[in-house]
Write a structure and sequence with these properties.
single chain, 110 residues, alpha+beta, Alpha-D-Glucose-1,6-Bisphosphate, Chain A, domain 4, seven-stranded antiparallel beta sheet, 3 helices, 7 strands, 25% strand, elongated
Length: 110
């Protein structure tokens, strides 16, 4: 799977990132797994057409050592559909900007 990974986190980074994700994402009920809804204006043409598959999201996994941003856009409604795909360039830019904004807001320097 394609991911944008930030590794070598310090213990204090982990706590700050965990708090940020608790405030700015949806918790899944699984420890360390978070969801972020993708803005509809970033949906690909096929994702826009598949109204019954909306909303779409990307997942974030936080461990003691790293935080990984999946570059796979998933549906909340279905598990398998051709609208579930690797992020487009605009979607990747959004995900990476989300990660960079998080680090900047938290003052984490890597």
């Amino acid at each position: 799977m394609k991911q944008y990974v930030i590794d070598q986190l310090r213990e204090s980074d982990f706590g700050q990132i965990q708090e940020f994700l608790a405030r700015n994402t949806e918790s899944t009920g699984l420890a360390g797994i978070y969801w972020v809804n993708l803005p509809p204006d970033l949906y690909s043409p096929i994702q826009s057409e598949h109204a019954t598959c909306h909303p779409y999201y990307f997942a974030i996994t936080l461990t003691w050592n790293d935080v990984a941003f999946e570059l796979l856009i998933r549906s909340r409604q279905v598990i398998r559909c051709n609208c579930i795909a690797h992020a487009t360039q605009h979607q990747r830019d959004y995900i990476i900007h989300f990660a960079d904004r998080m680090l900047e807001e938290l003052g984490i320097k890597l």
